Amino acid sequence: MSTFRFHALQKATDRTPVAVDDSERKSAIFGSNVFNDKAMRQFLTPEAYKAVKNAIENGIKIDRKIAEYIAMGMKEWALSKGVTHYTHWFQPLTGTTAEKHDAFFETSMDGSDPVEKFGGSQLAQQEPDASSFPNGGIRNTFEARGYTAWDPTSPAFIFGTTLCIPTVFISYTGEALDNKTPLLRALHAIDNAATDVAKYFDKNVKKVTPTLGWEQEYFLVDAALANSRPDILATGRTLLGHTSAKGQQLEDHYFGSIPTRVLQYMRDLEKECMLLGIPVKTRHNEVAPNQYELAPIFEETNLAVDHNSLLMDVMQKVAERHHFKVLFHEKPFKGVNGSGKHNNWSLATDTGINLLSPGRTPMSNLQFLTFFINTIKAVHDYEELMRASIASASNDHRLGANEAPPAIISVFIGQQLTNVLAELEGVSSGKLSPEEKTDLKLNVVGKLPDVLLDNTDRNRTSPFAFTGNKFEFRAVGSTANCAVSMTTLNTIVAKQLKDFKVEVDALIETKDMKKDDAIFNVLREYIKKTKAILFEGDGYSEAWEIEAKKRGLSNHKTTPKALKAKVSKQAIDLFGEMNVMDHVEVESRYEIELEEYTKKIQIEGRVLGDIARNHVIPTSIRYQNTLIENVRGLKEIFGKDFEKIAKEQIGLIKEISEHIEGINSNVEAMTEERKKANALNSSEKMADAYCEKVKPYFDIIRSHCDKLELLVDDEIWTLAKYRELLFVR
Ligand code: ADP
Ligand code: MG
After folding, report:
1. Which atom of ligand 1 is nearest to the CA of 357?
2. Rounded mean pLDDT of 605-616?
3. Least crowded by CB within 10 Å, which of 184, 228, 505, 653?
4. Are 208 and 361 a contacting pair, CB within 8 Å?
5. Mean pLDDT of all residues in the chain?
6. Which CATH class, in words, describes the domain spanning 31-178?
7. In the predicted structure, residue 79 carries a pLDDT above the cut 70
C-alpha cells in the first residue's frame, strides 16, 4: 500500500532536467517582446512617437487623437508577433497582478467584416469589474465602478499571445484602487523636491529619478511534492512538518553548485526575462536548501516595480514547465531561513549623477552628504511608517526571527561615514570662517571618495543600510509588491527634501548666509536630531531591543500593531501634503490590509485544523491500531508477562492518544476563538483577535502534529516531509 506522498516522491525523483534552448545571444533578444523605443520608432508615426516620449520624460498627457495613432501602431506591432488578445495589466491592492483578456478580433453586427480592432479608447480606458477587487469601503459594491488607464511610463509587453498594457486602476470618483497610482504620485513628488535641492549644486539638473534594484529570494519545490501538501497549496507555506535532521547547518547549499534541474529552470526563466526586457543579472543559491535569489540591473523605480511583479508571474509560469512550484512566502519552512526582497534605492539626475554616490570634488561630496543626511532624517522621522510599509502576515514570520532584520527600523552607515557625521556635527553654528570652510572641505568633505570605495563592513542585520552608493531596504518581504515600500520611502524623502530647502533658503535670506554655510548649518542640526535611528551593532541581539526602546524607536512585532502608523495623523498629513494619497485613500488601504491579514490567518487556521484532523489523526490512529494488534498478539503469546515485553508499544499507544487529544482540544478551542473574532464589528478588532487569540494555537497544534510525525511509521505518513521538500530537486 502506498500513499499519495510516495506517488509524489516517485514522480519527483524520476524527473529529468528539461531541455532549454538559450543559444541566442542575450543582447539579440533583449526586450524583443516589449514595445520599446526601437519598436515605437518602427511602428509609430513621428508625431505619435514624440507624444509618448513626452509623456514618459515630462509627464505630458497624450491627447485622444494621438492615442488613436499609438493604438494603431501598437496593434500592428503586436499582430506582427502573433498576438491575439490584449489586456490591461495592473496591480490591485491584494499584492498580485490582475488582467482581463479581450480579443483583438471583432465583427460587425451581422457577423460580416471581421477585423482586428484596437483603438485609442481601448488603449486608454477599460472597465474591469471593479467590484471584485478590494476597495476598502471607497465605493459600495452597487456603485463599484472603476477604470484602468494606460501608464505610458511603463512600456507594453507581450506575454504568450497577449499584449499586456501596464495601467493604473482608479475609481470613477478619482481614488486610486491600485499600488501603481500612489507610486507614480510619490515619484513625481520626489522628482520635484530632489530637483530643487540638486539645483543648489548644479543648475542644469531638470529631473531626478529614483532608482530601484530589487533582489528576489524564493524557494523551489518539486510540483508533485508541493501538491501533496494542502498547506503549501492554500497558504504558500508549511503549517506543520518536523524539522529535517539535516537542515541548513552545514551551509553547504550557499556555496554549492546549482543543481542541474534548477539551473535549467533558471536558464529558461532568464530567457523569458530577456524577451520581456527584465535585465536580470545575478542568480545564485541562498542560505537555505532549495532557496535561490535573482537580481536585475537596477532601473527607474516604476519600471522596476512592474518588472518585479511581472517576474513573479513569469517565475511561476516557467516553473510549471519544469515541474517546480515557486514559494515566494517569507517563511515557507520552520527552522530554515526565510526569504526577503532587498530594495536597493538611490536617486539619479538627468545629468547622469547618482546623488547617493560621493563624487570627486568637495562640492559633489557636499551634494552627496545632503541627500545622504536627508534620507537618514526622513527615516528617523517616519520610522513607524517605514515599518508599516513592509507589514504583512507572512513578513511577521521573518522580521525579528534572527535571520532577517528586526521589526525595529534603524539605519546602518558604516564606521567611516559615522566619523564624517561626527566631524560635521562639530561645525560651529552660523557663518563659517574662511579657514573653517577650507578645513571642512579639504579634510572632511573632500576625503570621502577613497573612504567609500571600500565599504566592506556591511551589516547584514540592518533593515536599512547604506551600501556605498545606495540605500538598501532589507526588511521588505519576498511576497511584497515593492510599490508599497517605494511609495513610502520616496514620499518621506520628498517631504524631507522639501522641508530642507525651506530651511536652507530661510537661512540664506534672513541670516544672509552663503549657500554652503546654510547647508552645513541645517545638516549639522539634522545630525544632532537623528542619532537615535543610527545603529551599527547587531540588530538580532536582545541588547538592541532594550537599547532601541530607550531611544524611543518603535518595535511592532505584528502586522495589526505595525499598520496603525499608516493612519496616524502624521501619515495622513504627509501623504496629503505630498499629493500622494488623500485621507480616504490612506484609510481604505488600511482597511484592506487589515482584512487581508485577517483572511490570511483565518485560512491558515482552517487549513491547519483540516490537515491535523484529516491527515495527521487518521494516520496516527492507523499506526496506533497496528501497535494495539501487536500488543494483543504479545499478550496471547506471553500471557501475563506481556506487559514487560510490550512496554514500549504501550507507551507509544498512550503517547499517540495524548497528542490526538491535544490536537482535538486545541483545534476546537481555536475554532471557538475564530467564531468570536468573526463576530467582532471592526476590521481592527478582528485583525487583533486573529493575531492574539487565534494565531497562538498554530504553534501548539503544530507541535502535537510534529511529534506524531516522528512517532508514526514513515511508510504510512501522508504528507511530504521536510527532508523531501527541501532536498529533492
Ligand atoms: P547584495 O545585497 O546581494 O550583496 P549588492 O549590494 O551588490 O548585492 O546589491 C546589488 C543590487 O543593488 C543589484 O540588484 C543592483 O541592481 C542594485 N543597485 C546597484 N546600484 C543601484 C542604484 N544606484 N540604485 C538602485 N539600485 C542599485
Ligand atoms: Mg542585498
Report:
1. 23
2. 97
3. 505
4. no
5. 90
6. alpha beta
7. yes
Q: Are strands 162-171 and 85-89 parallel, antiparallel or unpaired?
A: parallel
Query: CA-CA distance, 573 to 190, in Å (whole number)?
Result: 16
The total number of residues written for the chain in this structure: 729
Instruction: Give the pTM.
Output: 0.94
Q: What is the CA radius of gyration of the chain?
A: 29
User: 596-727: which CATH architecture?
Assistant: Up-down Bundle (1.20)
pLDDT above 70: percentage of residues in the chain: 92
Segment 200-227 mean pLDDT: 96
Rounded Cα distance between 530 and 411, Å, is: 10
The 3-state DSSP class for residue 109 equals coil
Q: What residues pack around ion ligand 2 (CB closer than 5 A)?
A: 215, 342
Give the mean pLDDT of 14-35. Answer: 92
Q: Does the pLDDT value for residue 502 go beyond 60?
A: yes
| Band of pLDDT at residue 453, cut at 50, 70 and 90 | low
Helix extents (H) in 530-568:
542-551, 559-563
Q: Span 175-192, mean pLDDT?
A: 94
Q: Which residues, at least 6 apart from 389, have a Cβ–Cβ distance to it below 8 Å? A: 484, 485, 487, 488, 489
E runs forming strands in 350-475: 411-412, 464-466, 471-473
- Alpha-helical segments (H) within 454-514: 482-510
pLDDT digits (tens, 9 = 90+) for 356-415: 998 877 778 899 999 999 999 999 999 999 999 999 999 999 986 767 778 999 999 998
**Alpha-carbon separation of residue 69 from 44, 163, 442, 475 (angstroms):** 7, 17, 57, 44
Q: Is 470 in the pocket of ligand 1 (CB under 6 A)?
A: yes
Q: What are phi and psi of 635, to 5 degrees?
A: -65, -40
Q: How remote is the CA of residue 370 from the centroid of ligand 1, in Å?
A: 21
| Closest atom of ligand 1 relative to the 474 alpha carbon | 2
Query: Domain residues of the chain, as ranges?
Result: 31-178, 188-238+250-581, 596-727
294 has which bridge partners? 216, 283
C-alpha cell at 298: 537596477
485 alpha carbon – ligand 2 mean position (Å): 15
Q: According to DSSP H, which parts of 511-582 are helical?
A: 515-529, 542-551, 559-563, 569-577
For residue 477, give the C-alpha cell.
Answer: 518581504
Judged by DSSP in three states, 256 sits in coil
CA 620 to chain centre: 39
Write down the architecture of domain 188-238+250-581 according to CATH.
2-Layer Sandwich (3.30)
Q: Is residue 477 classed as helix, strand or coil in its secondary structure? A: strand
- What's the gap in Å between 590 CA and the centre of ligand 2? 29
Provide the pairing of β-strand 464-466 with 411-412: parallel
